[in-house]
Amino acid sequence: MKNILEVQNVVKKYGEKVALNNVSLNIPQGSIFGLLGPNGAGKTSLIRIINQITFPDSGQILLDGEKLSQHHIKHIGYMPEERGLYKSMKVGEQALYLAQLKGLSKAEAEKQLKYWFDKLEISDWWNKKIQELSKGMAQKIQFVVTVLHQPKLLIFDEPFSGFDPVNANIIKDEILELKKKGSTIIFSTHRMESVEELCDEIALIHKSNKLIDGKVVDVKKQFRTNTYQVGILSNEPENFKSILANQFDFQETNFKSLNNELQLNINLGNKSSNDLMQILIQNGEITHFTENIPSINDIFIETVSPK
Amino acid sequence: MGVLSLIIKREFISKVRNKSFIIMTFVSPLLFVAFAVLVGYLSSLRSDMKHIGIHDESGLFFSEFKSNDLFNYTDVSLIDEKILKDSVSLKAYEGILFIPKFDNLKEYENGIQYISDESPSLQFVSDLEKTMGNKLTRINLTNSGIDTLKIDEAKADISVNLVKASGEETVKGLNEIKIAIGALFGYLIMMFIIIYGNMVMRSVIEEKTNRIIEIIISSVKPIYLMMGKIIGTTLAGILQFSIWAIVGGILMLIANTVFGLNTSSPSMDMVSEMNPDLISTIQLYLKEIAMLPIGSLIFFFLIYFIGGYFLYSSLYAAIGAAVDNETDTQQFLFPVIAPLMLAVYIGFFTVMNEPHGTVATIFSMIPFTSPIVMLMRIPFGVPIEQIIISVILLFATFIGIVWFAAKIYRVGILMHGKKPTWKELLKWIKY
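Predict the joint structure of the above. Result:
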């Protein structure tokens, strides 16, 4: 698949402090790309470089195969984590102004604004000042001005923070719809459940370095532990455990179930799942058998915790 | 350039729509005129006539004192000294002039007393001394057998006519007009820088604390935002200044006709009462003012205004970007205000005395003071090469400062939390 954005060997220093240490990323067109990392890892630095707010000390960034330059600004939409709008300016005027700064003509901006305001049912806010709106309402305006100019690349920094669950869902659906229409979305967040739900690819940045990147499935494969979660109803559980211990490493575990079975986490080691299955069948009734797939959350924590 | 005009427009509109801006625009000239009317009214009040008693035992001096609107002189030579002193305490007289009788005329020089409760004004005392001194001189002259009439006839008044090397005649006192015009321009620049520089700074801080800054600069280059902000605020400032001038002028006119007060300089009927000599002098003044290079003055005013204002307001913008709130601006503002104040002092004290002295010349070259100092010098005629050097220095520094301010601005607007030190500011330039 074609990459819409290629980050190549980007280095950024603030004085002595290295914010990005030789980071390279490829973001495929039409994907939702999760940019993950703890606070202060360098995510915002990278996002600011992509937005040409700051510039890398070395390395380069290609958008659609072209070296990033001023005219690309209109192809990027950016919603920063720290939201902000002019408090004493009217919603409509403000949105028009920001859209025009992105290069839309006034007529085009008005048309797009009408579409989005109708869609999100916020048309009657047009003449209100931002300071009269609630935080969540202001967030919606912020979302609209980010996507208004139909950018190829959308960058959302913590898009769901500040939204109630209903509005968060509305925004999530809008993001998915934008993806369907062909936009590529970079998504920086700490909320791992939304990463699981939305992202096709992820990259994890920690202490200025990129540690992991790739398709979510591939990353998970890389982190699979070869352990299975097993439930078994056995007549002689102690006897079964000693038989099992001869061939597999395991610990007892807990999961929700309707039976009063023995619950185990079993590591396959160098054997296959069928080998395990055979032992289980011989010793009782299997009620549960699934691979332990690492969640993004697990991967995140495992990668960034000090070892 | 499309974005720049968009930013200028927004800044201008947001300034002009601001409630405090509107109030300031229309209330300031009202206040100003109200003060002028008040001052005019107060100064038009005649002070009470003062009664001065003259106890003249010598009989030589009383006839010299002529009563007028301010002072009424009464001959109290026949009244006892003690009673007169009581009458001063009782406020019957403002004061009593005691002139004893001396045989030797020389003794009058130190033998005369003025008794009062409130100390008299210096002007009044010196008038008394002059009146009696003149009389005594005349007596001395007559006693020496000299004809005082002849002396009066022989007195000559010389008034030196000042002529420029180029041959134009000038008038004494024109220097005051020149300094007034220069001072007006210099003062305007200073006021403008302080008022609207601060406005630029507050508007940067507002964007920064609003956090909208990151959205804006993901769309436009920070330098466009900074310049747009400065230009937009300037336009709002020019509008406000013009409204002040127009509204203030109209109000002044109304105040003049309604109250009939003498709020400005001599009114017309006073001029017509003046002797023809004075009128011709005034005409000469007007001619002189008309001969001042008004065109080039205005031209240089604009040049120095633009250079100076942009120089300072980019510094204000940089300060706004460096801090998180207005209270943190103090330590950075002082070094900005200091050269402005210095320029005004030098303008008023040094340029007035010695428009082409070393100090005045040097400070009219230094870019931070030249907009004010040079403008004050220009009406006195400054060699063109000095002006050229000064303007080049000003604009070179202006470009340097804008570059420097833009660097600080670019980094500063994204920095939140702690107040930076000077050292950190310098480090930002390298980012």
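Residues 263-272 of chain B have pLDDT under 50 and may be disordered.
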